[in-house]
Amino acid sequence: MPEGAMKAWIESSHLSGANAAYIEELYESYLDNSQSVSAEWREIFQQLPKVEGADVEYRHSEIRDEFKKLAQEPHKTLVVSGGSDAKQVKVLQLINAFRFRGHQNANLDPLGLWQREKVRDLQLSHHDLSENDFDREFNIGSLAVGQESMKLGDLYKALKTTYCGSIGAEYMHITSTDEKRWIQQRLESVQSQAILSVEEKEEIFKGLVAADGLEKYLGAKFPGAKRFSLEGGDSLIPMLKQLITRAGTQGAKEVVIGMAHRGRLNVLVNVMGKNPSKLFDEFGGKHDEILSSGDVKYHQGYSSDFVTPGGNVHLALAFNPSHLEIVNPVVMGSVRARLDRRDCNAGDLVLPITIHGDSAIAGQGVVQETFNMSQARAFKVGGTIRIVVNNQVGFTTSSPQDTRSGEYCTEIAKMVSAPILHVNGDDPEAVILATQIALDYRNEFKRDVVIDLVCYRRHGHNEADEPSATQPLMYKKVKKHPTPRQIYAEKLNAEGTLAKARTDELMAYYRKLLDEGQCTVEQWRPMTEHSVDWSPYLGHDWDDAYDHEISLDKLKELANKVSSIPADHHVHNRVRKIYDDRAKMASGEKLLDWGMAENLAYASIVDAGERVRITGQDSGRGTFFHRHAVLHNQDDASRYLPLQNIREGQGPFDVHDSVLSEVSVLAFEYGYTTAEPSGLTIWEAQFGDFANCAQVVFDQFISSGEQKWGRLCGLTMLLPHGYEGQGPEHSSARLERFLQLCADHNMQICVPSTPAQVFNMLRRQVVRPMRRPLVVMSPKSLLRHPLAVSSLDDLATGVFHNVIGEIDDIEPSNVERVVFCSGKVYYELLEQRRKNEQTNIAIIRIEQLYPFPEQELQKQLAKYQHVKQFVWCQEEPQNQGAWYCSQHHFRAALPKGGYLTYAGRAASAAPAVGYMSVHVKEQQALVHDALKVE
Ligand code: AMP
Known about the structure:
By secondary structure, the protein is α/β, with parallel strands linked by helices. The protein contains 32 helices and 25 strands.
């Protein structure tokens, strides 16, 4: 439609800027379904001019833009053209105002302490309406109440009940009309009131009895002991039980829950079905699992089954450290692994639930990262139910004005247009309705949704804490405030749903269960549903023998496959050259480089029917242009992955460029590998030092998860490392930090130096049944180093050498000095020694720094028992690299009379210099030092 004509129409209809958003909504709805708007609006929209000669509606974007422009203009009065009643339009505006802003005047705070301004848009007078109009019948547009018109009085009441009751729904920020309409339908059709049977109400009540009963019992039995009580947020228990039951009824087979410490004991006993007697034992200092460190009771995970009308649902509560929100990506990763195993891309079969604190969800950046991941190809899980236990006190003592800048703690959810249902925790029926809507929304649209359970914290941060010292007014109120169980009991008694005798009986029954130490969850079942058997992976160590054979014929066959590109898939010239070279490597014309060996490792794994998953920044191509596992067609941008075309029935090969984050991606992959022992899972850092941003995941999960929680994890981390003059930030993967975390054989730290080594290292991680994290200092320039090449025969040995001895023809009896090293510096030492024609120096590479391969090193040193001079050569400054953490291992291996010295950079605050000339000088000096026979 010509611009002028549209403008003229809009102006002639007196539709003002203030109404633009609403009319836009209405028009969108009309375009979807003309019957969804009132006859009056239908008539107006039908009168809109059409594009000349075309039988189609004019573009909605044009109208929208025009409305936007008008929205900037001062308010004009809206009068529907044709002389009809101007109030009709005002009524529609009023409905829209409640949809947009009703939540701001909803009754959300159980303590009634929130001071919220009256929202003008929700007042009749703001819309030139008054109680005098209450008896007039108006068209109600798309209000989903099953009728076309209502008296204003009834409408106003319905709007207040729907949008300003115990549920405050924020959803008008959602851009999808379908989703908005869906939510409107769910809320408006029942005026935000749950329709519940007597049995359902009793079930809710039982949940509150359990929540309250356990805390009181623990408080009485173990006074002053830390339990991080749920009290105040009791509705969480019926909410979780409702979620699981409904999810199971709708077909879910597993639910994975992540939460911090607050309320965790309650969830463990009253949802997961942990036997209370076990918990009491833990309070008494007893434990039945012998782990090398173990963990406190409020960080423990749990697994069980839960019966629902749709069958048993397996429940897994993730173990978590006290780092609050970091468990969220772990849960998502665990869910993704379970979905992949069930071949369920949509997400129907496994439900993630993450439980947040109000300050943590607003304060911690990892929350934003997980929202950002929620629809990304590599990480989507079909939507997460995110529950905020909003007790209005941050960690120990902070008030909302100190912990956030937004109106609600949940603002971050809007970045992915997630609906947010704020709900008053003292109204458990509203909580159940919000829960039902949230789950159904997640299952319908496969997107994240937030339930903000507005509640309070009955005690201090822990039970020994005195909250009145810092929150005097709040705690004055809390002390007098009845518990959710008391409030609901009174309601049920008063409405005659449950007699007092019955509510008392249910409380006594719960107490009896605790006294007898019996499981309190009727729906609890022993585990049958979980689909992985971890027993083949238990009890192994890194030096166990394993079947590493791979035949040369198989390798040649795979080499041909990974180097073939379909004729009609036109790749970039530089990629073509790499693949041409790979074809030569396959035919034996050329030795294999790093990229080829790595791709062959993946090929051999998927050929054996196992899966490979790689994520990281640039992982498809490889940061340094070496992998090219994904081939982009230059004609149409289509993708071809040779590794997905190895053979019919092969294992899945998934490589994804990740979102631009380290911490949440690594946590996700940790979650993935703790839920999936088979195959190879790799996280790759763009540069090794970026792993810094994920330090919490290394410290709290990867290095200590097995020792604290008995949870194995076979994750491999490729961290590019090497001193090539790229400055302080891109030289070091901070090897020393990983070595410092090593004990109890908790993880492996490897520095492979040849293509055959990377091939066999990656295969070893899958073929050997041990599942422990593998941290790899992976190369950069070595990817293309002319000496860093291997033959197919080298690969076919199938063995990863933890130590590699001298490769040149050096007579051991002539050796006066032995140099130990790892990584790229080896080639510099080798070349320099060859240049110097030194035949009295042997170089030994330590390819696995932890667990330290003592026996293999001893074996290599057997021929150098006469040598006195041993030197550890490293590129890193002396306070970094392996020197301080590993020298005791080197020393222990020396022959009698031998001594160890250091050749490397001087201690330095920064990992590397930023000036190329200084870098070169330092590098030459350390190589020179290492080769200087004394
Ligand atoms: P889940 O499916 O996470 O509830 O786990 C079910 C059971 O599998 C647990 O009770 C453990 O016995 C075992 N299991 C799960 N994950 C691991 C793991 N990462 N390492 C060892 N055993 C595990």
